[in-house]
From TrEMBL:
GO terms for cellular component: cytoplasm; exodeoxyribonuclease VII complex. Belongs to the XseA family. This is Exodeoxyribonuclease 7 large subunit. It comes from the Bacteria. GO terms for molecular function: exodeoxyribonuclease VII activity; nucleic acid binding. It comes from Salinisphaera japonica YTM-1.
Length: 458
C-alpha cells in the first residue's frame, strides 16, 4: 500500500500502524517538560499519566521495566522533564509519549502560580482577620453561588431543609471550572450585592484536582469576595483543599455542607428553647411588675406625706396608665411569641412523617380495595371456566359410556382388556358396569367379531 496513492484503501488498524511508524521514525528520543496530571498505577506495574502545560496536554506511558529505574517520584502536580519517544497507541488511535527516563523539574506551574498569588494578596492584607465580618445569626435569605447541577447545591439544599426550613435560598448558577468560571463568579458576586436581597453568600463547589479548582484561585474572584458588602462563606472542595477564595472569604468551611451548616441555625434546637425563653420572659416581666408595684407603694406614701390630694390623684392616674401600657406590652409580647411558636409548630408539623404515613395508609387502603375487586373478578372468571371444564369432562367421562350399556373388562393387574387374546381360559377378570362390578373367570375366548364369543362368567 502506498499512503500517497488516492486509490489505496486502509483499514483503521493499518492506518493507525502507518501513523505510528511515521511518528516513531520522524522523531527520535527527545526531551519534553510539563506537569503531571491524571496519574494512574494499575496492577500491571506500568504507569500512565498526562503531561500538560498551560494550553495543551499529551498522554504518556511509562512501562514497568523503565519505571523501576526512576529516581524521581511521579505525583500529580509535579513538574518533570521526560526523555521519551513520540508514538501512537493503535488500539485507540491515541497520540502518546513512550517514556524512557524522567527527571524532577521543580514544583508544578499551577502550584507555583497559586503560591505566588497567595503570598502577594496576603501581603496586601486581603486575608487579614481584622477585616472579616461576622455571619448573621438567622438569615432570611441565603445566596448560593455554584453550579446549578452539581453535588454542592444538593448538599446545601439538603442541609437548609433539615436545619432551617424558614430560610429562603437564592441560587446564582455559575460554571465552577474552566476558563469561564472566574468571570462568571465575579459577575454573580456583583449581581448579588446589587440586588442586596440576601443576608449572606455561599461560594461553594465539590472537590477536584488543583486544575479543577483554578476558577477559585483567581485574583479577580478574591478581590470580588473582599469587595462584597455581604458576608461571604467559602466552601470549595474537600477539607484538605485550600483555595484563594477560601482565604479571602469572611469564613472558610471545609465542604459545601459545612458552609450551609455555618449559616443555617438549627431551628429544631431553637424551637425546644422557646418554652424556656417564654418562662424567662414571663418571670422577668412579673419581677418588673412587682418592682413597679413596690415603687407605687413608696410613692403613695411620699405623696400622702408631702403632697396635696390632687397630686396623689394625678400620680394614681399616671400609674393606672402605666399599668395599662405595661399590661398591653406584656400581652402583645406574649401574643407575638405565641404566634411565632405556633408558626414554628405548624411548619414542623408539615415536615413530620405522621402526615406522610397517614397519606401512605390511605393509598394502601385504596390499593387493597382495588386488589379485592380484582381478586373477586378473577375468582368469578375462574369459577365460570371451571364449570365449563367440568361440563366438558362430564361429556367425555367413561361413566357416561357405561351408562349407555357398555362395560369395561380388567385383568388381575387392573389393566383394561382390549383384545380377546389378552385373556386366557381360567383367568380371573373384573367387569365394570354402570353400577357395580362383576368378578368372572374366562372359559374361552375368540377374536372373531361375527361369531358370538363363547364366554361364561361366574
Amino acid at each position: 500500500m502506498r499512503p500517497g496513492d488516492p486509490s489505496t484503501v486502509f483499514t483503521v488498524s493499518e492506518l493507525n500502524n502507518a501513523a505510528r511508524d511515521l511518528l516513531e521514525h520522524s522523531f527520535g528520543l527527545l526531551w519534553v517538560e510539563g506537569e503531571i496530571s491524571n496519574l494512574a498505577r494499575p496492577r500491571s506495574g506500568h504507569v500512565y499519566f498526562s503531561l500538560k502545560d498551560g494550553t495543551a496536554q499529551i498522554r504518556c506511558a511509562l512501562f514497568k521495566s523503565k519505571a523501576r529505574l526512576l529516581r524521581v517520584a511521579l505525583e500529580n502536580g509535579v513538574q518533570v522533564r521526560l526523555r521519551a519517544r513520540v508514538s501512537l497507541y493503535p488500539a485507540r488511535g491515541d497520540f502518546q509519549l513512550i517514556v524512557e527516563h524522567a527527571e524532577d523539574a521543580g514544583a508544578g506551574a499551577l502550584q507555583r502560580a497559586f503560591e505566588e498569588l497567595r503570598d502577594r494578596l496576603d501581603a496586601e492584607g486581603l486575608f487579614a482577620a481584622a477585616r472579616k465580618r461576622a455571619l448573621p445569626v438567622s438569615p432570611k435569605r441565603i445566596g448560593v453561588i455554584t453550579s446549578a447541577t452539581g453535588a454542592a447545591i444538593r448538599d446545601v439544599l439538603s442541609v437548609a431543609a433539615r436545619r432551617y426550613p424558614l430560610g429562603a435560598i437564592r441560587i446564582y448558577p455559575v460554571p465552577v471550572q474552566g476558563q469561564a468560571a472566574p468571570a462568571a463568579i465575579v459577575k454573580a458576586l456583583a449581581l448579588a450585592n446589587k440586588r442586596a436581597d440576601c443576608d449572606v453568600l455561599l461560594v461553594v463547589r465539590g472537590g477536584g484536582a488543583l486544575e479543577d479548582l483554578m476558577g477559585f484561585n483567581d485574583e479577580a474572584v478574591a478581590r470580588a469576595i473582599v469587595a462584597s458588602a455581604l458576608p461571604v462563606v467559602s466552601g470549595v472542595g474537600h477539607e484538605v483543599d485550600v483555595t484563594i477564595a477560601d482565604l479571602a472569604a469572611d469564613v472558610r468551611a471545609a465542604t459545601p455542607s459545612a458552609a450551609a451548616e455555618l449559616v443555617c441555625p438549627d431551628l429544631s434546637a431553637a424551637t425546644e428553647r422557646l418554652p424556656a425563653l417564654e418562662a424567662r420572659l414571663r418571670q422577668r416581666l412579673i419581677g418588673q411588675l412587682v418592682a413597679e408595684q413596690r415603687s407605687l407603694v413608696r410613692l403613695n406614701a411620699r405623696l400622702e406625706r408631702q403632697a396635696p390630694r390632687r397630686r396623689v390623684q394625678i400620680a394614681a392616674q399616671r400609674l393606672d396608665e402605666a399599668e395599662q401600657r405595661l399590661a398591653r406590652v406584656v400581652t402583645s409580647r406574649l401574643r407575638m411569641h405565641r404566634q411565632t411558636l405556633q408558626l414554628v409548630e405548624d411548619r414542623l408539623a408539615r415536615t413530620r412523617p405522621e402526615q406522610r404515613i397517614v397519606a401512605a395508609r390511605q393509598r394502601v387502603a385504596g390499593l387493597r380495595q382495588r386488589l379485592d375487586r380484582v381478586g373477586v373478578s378473577r375468582l368469578d372468571n375462574a369459577q365460570r371456566r371451571l364449570a365449563v371444564a367440568m361440563r366438558t369432562l362430564h361429556g367425555v367421562s367413561p361413566l357416561q359410556t357405561l351408562a349407555r350399556g357398555y362395560a369395561i373388562a380388567r385383568d388381575a393387574n387392573d389393566q383394561v382388556i382390549r383384545d380377546a387374546h389378552s385373556a386366557s381360559p381360567g383367568d380371573r377378570i373384573a367387569i365394570d358396569l354402570a353400577r357395580g362390578r362383576l368378578d368372572c373367570t374366562v372359559e374361552a375366548s375368540r377374536s372373531d367379531r361375527t361369531t358370538p364369543q363363547q364366554t361364561e362368567y361366574q
